[in-house]
Amino acid sequence: MSDAPRSVRLWLLLLAVLVAAMVIVGGATRLTDSGLSITEWDLVLGALPPMSHAHWEEAFALYRQIPEYHRVNAGMTLSEFQGIYWWEWSHRNLGRIIGLAVFAPLLWFSVRGTVRGRLRWQLWGLFALVCLQGAIGWYMVSSGLSERVDVSQYRLALHLSTALLLYALIVWQFLSLSGSRAVAAGSKLGGWAWGMLAAISLQIVLGAFVAGLRAGKTFNDWPLMGGKIVPEGYFGEPSRFADLFERVAAVQFNHRIGAYLVLAFAIAFAVKCYRAGRDTRRYGASLLGAVTFQAVIGIATVMAAVPLWLGLAHQAGALVVVTAAVWSVHALSGATRPARHPRSTAALSAVPQGR
């Protein structure tokens, strides 16, 4: 194992689980149209839900002032409001928990000297990213409180991208401190692994636009869209570049094409890994398996018009794909270091570290 204390590695693993849960709860908040139910942001007092009937009526009155209530949920009862309120409240409180789960242990590790030097600053950088993500979350919610009946798909894409960046960085740090075995044969595959991660990241951003426009609720046939290869309404009249991100037909078509390209890339990557040797095969196989499963879930989700459980499965699948991609990049790009054992030092020095 690495020289990093076991407590630090377990802490990072816990953070990865919490961020993954945050992404999934965020998906549920979006799919249940709950994201605008809390119209104010109070970092401290907002952690408490309404504690009395009068407090619930006050929160409901604030919600009745925004366009979503008037145009979408007019006539909603207090009981129905409570149903969407709890999703958003849970999402925000999980964010608070993550902030504390990063800050308190990291402060303890820093004061005791458990983490030092570059690692300490990298971990504090994670805390800064958590704070930034909270600000982006409110920036996203605020876009739906004045004129729109939903949040901006651009801000949603930014919010999801930042969450997955945070998750990927935590996984990367965990792998770095776990002392995983180096893959000497992976030097030629590092570029491929980075390319896979870039393609997957772009595909997730495209998926965020689908979510932001609720595009999965339309064109529920496959492999065609509305009986056509390129759906009607891809561009407006006159056509604009922004149509690629603002028209339902366009964002769903782009996400579908992106999925096909990522799957083809994953197949090629798996073949490359298989041919490179036994040590690299697991990375290609795991990433191809994750991408294939995610593609199947995606097809099922759109054909079923995005039921909650399938939508959340698709969101969780994205986390699995990102995990497999980060693991592959970490191992094949030279970031992984061999564990140091006294009896193996001489042997390691005699083994060529690549060609």
From TrEMBL:
One GO CC annotation: plasma membrane
One GO BP annotation of this record: heme A biosynthetic process
InterPro entries: COX15/CtaA_fam, HemeA_Synthase_type2
GO molecular function, one term: heme A synthase activity
UniProt-listed Pfam families: COX15-CtaA (PF02628)
Location in or out of the cell: Cell membrane; Membrane
Reaction equations catalysed: Fe(II)-heme o + 2 A + H2O = Fe(II)-heme a + 2 AH2
Membrane spanning stretches: 94-111, 123-141, 156-177, 189-213, 257-274, 286-310, 316-335
Keyword Mitochondrion tagged: no
Quaternary structure and interacting proteins, as annotated: Interacts with CtaB.
HAMAP family in alphabetical order: HemeA_synth_type2
Protein name: Heme A synthase
Gene label: ctaA
